[in-house]
Amino acid sequence: MRRGILGIGVCTLDILTKVKTLPSDESVEEADSAIFMGGGPVPTALAAATYLGSSTTILDTLGDDWKSNLIIEELRDHGVQCENIIIEPGSSASLASVLVRSSDGARAIRFVRSSTKAINPKSLEDNIINNHRIIHCNGRHLDACIQAAEIAKKYKEETLLSFDGGAGRYRKELLPLMERINIAIVAKDFALKATNETKLNQSTWIKLNQLFPKAHIIGITDGHRGSWIQYENQEPFHQPAFLATNIEDTTGCGDVYHGTFLHAIESGTSVNEAARMASGAGSMNATALGGRGLLPTKEQLNKFLDKAKEIQSS
Length: 314
What we know:
4-stranded mixed sheet; globular; UDP-N-acetylmuramoyl-L-alanine:D-glutamate ligase; 8-stranded mixed sheet; 14 strands; 10 helices
C-alpha cells in the first residue's frame, strides 16, 4: 500500500535571527531574538503535509555532525519518516543564517553548503519510489530525481512527480527533470526566467506548458499577490493570498504552500480547494518566526479559512 508523499531534497539547519534592519554594509546591531530550526524547501513542505494528515518520507544525504543530528531529530518530531536518510561519516549538514526584519518579515539569507555527496541514483530502490503516491522535489539531488521519475514510469499504478521551482533557482540543467513533472508550481521569478518573459502573460503559460509537457497542474506563486493555477487545459484561475495579522517572517511560506497543496491533492480535494487551502496555510505560516514556525493542523486551517479575508488585487 502506498503511503503518501516522498520528498527528495536537501535538509538544512537554519539560525533565524530577528533584527530591526537588514545589513547593507559592515555593522553591529543587537538582535531581538534567535532560534534554531530545520529548513529546506522539500523537508519543510513534507512537515506541512504531515501536520495535515499525510504520511511523508524524506530522502537526503546528511553527515554525522551535530547539525545533522538536530535536523533528523526535528523532522522526526514533526512526524516525517527519516529511515531512508543516508548518513555519510565525516560530513556535515548545510547551515543557513536567516536575518528576518521585524517590521515586515523581509529576509536576508547566507548559507554554508553541505559537504555531503549527492544521492547516487543507482542507490534508489524501486519499492521506496513505488510505495508513494507523490514524489516531491526541487531539483536538488537532480540525477536521483530523474531516476525516481524513470522508476515510477515502470509501474502501472500512477505516481505523481511534483516540482517546486523557487525564486532564483532556475537553471537549464533542470530541463530534463521538468519534462517529467506532473505537478509544477513555481515562483513568478522562476517562471519568467524559464520562459524568457518580462511579465506574466499568455505567452508565459504557453511556454510553461512546453517546458512541463506532462504536467496536468501548473502553478505560479507571487507572494501577497497570490497564485495562478492551470488545471489540465483550462484557463488559469487566480487564488488570492489571505490577510494575516502580525506578519513576522515570510521564510518557508512557499514551502508550506507546496506541502498543503500536495496533501490536498493526495486526499482527493479539488484543485481549486487545494489552492485555497495552500494559500491559507502559507499566510498562517507568515505569522511566526521560521519556515516551520506555524504548521497548521487541518482543524486550525479550516478555522482560519472560515474567517480569513482575501487580499484584493490592485
